[in-house]
Design a protein that fits this description.
There is one protein chain. The chain has no helices and eight strands. It has 81 residues and is an all-beta fold. The chain has one domain. It has a four-stranded antiparallel beta sheet with strand order 4-5-1-8, with no helix packed on it. A two-stranded antiparallel sheet has the order 2-7. It is elongated, with a radius of gyration of 13 Å. The N and C termini lie close together (7 Å).
């Protein structure tokens, strides 16, 4: 199943490609996440495979993203499946 994460407008991609690691509730540890810099999205292709049971809470570590320059409250991340 595909999952798409939309970054808040205040968060951006770093110079390097993002690294995505499934910590819990995912079907794989090494996640494939395709970055679309123009749309500010990450598309996960192997985070959720078919399973007989609900995996519960999903925890994913995202690396190589840029925080805002000043300390500020950001808008929300959005997730679509």
């Amino acid at each position: 199943m595909l999952m798409v994460l939309i970054l808040p407008v205040e968060i951006d991609f770093g110079d390097e490609l993002p690294l995505c690691t499934g910590l819990s509730g995912t079907s794989n540890t090494q996640l494939i996440c395709v970055a679309n810099r123009e749309r500010k999205t990450l598309t996960f292709t192997n985070a959720m495979q078919f399973a007989d049971a609900n995996p519960g809470k999903m925890v994913i570590l995202l690396e190589n993203l840029k925080n805002p320059k000043e300390n500020a409250i950001t808008s929300s991340f959005k997730v679509y499946t």
